[in-house]
Amino acid sequence: MQTELRELLEKQAIAELLYAYAEGIDRRDGRLLERVFTADCQLHYGAYDQPASVLIKSWSADSPPMFLMTHHLYGNIVVRFFGVDRARSITYFFAHHRADHGGQLMDEMVRGRYLDRLIKKDGQWRFAERTIIFDWSKIAPADSTNWWDAPGNPAKVGAHRSADPAYGFLDDAGTW
């Protein structure tokens, strides 16, 4: 029973790592992403095949984002352990990207799977290598109208980095 419970806790820790990656990518939060990758992590994302550190360094406050917004969702997560500090996972994902192609807003939607090699170091799981298998995609002109644009609508809208309304929300229990 102890072994099974330990494995469940480790799988949950890996799921939390996946969620942190999605948050870091979607909010363009380089500090968060630095905590999810090993120093030498390689990303194999099709056209993007470089170290994770290059991606993080390419983001600066004044650099235009490659995408105006991204939104990553996960489905099935399957994890296999290889000792106490090595694991592999396959994670199904759906990602929506909004891009500006020369003044034309485009919605780029992708479904696929992440193949991850994971290492546990200093008690924390990190990505050592990530590969994307693309299963489906669609690119279409975007409608720039948002339902929250109605006059008087007080909706909170997602943004990059600390401008996002959820930034730090889980960190401050003192303002319950």
What does this structure look like?
The protein contains 3 helices and 6 strands. It has a 6-stranded mixed beta sheet with strand order 2-1-6-5-4-3. It is globular and about 55 Å long. The termini are far apart. It has 176 residues and is α+β, with helices and mostly antiparallel strands.
Comma- or semicolon-separated keywords:
3 helices; single chain; 44% strand; 176 residues
Low-confidence segments, given as residue ranges, are none
Task: State the strand order across the main sheet.
Answer: 2-1-6-5-4-3
User: How much of the residues is beta strand, in percent?
Assistant: 35-45%
Count of β-strands: 6
Largest sheet, described in full? 6 strands, mixed
**String of helices and strands:** HHEEHEEEE
Q: Tell me the span between the first and last alpha carbons.
A: 36 Å
In helices, the fraction of residues equals 10-25%
What integer value in Å does the Rg equal? 18 Å
Q: What is the averaged pLDDT score? A: 90
Described by the principal axes of the CA atoms, the overall outline is: globular
Class by alpha and beta content: alpha+beta
Number of helices in the DSSP assignment: 3
Short description:
The protein contains 3 helices and 6 strands. With 176 residues, it is an alpha+beta fold. The radius of gyration is 18 Å and the shape is globular.
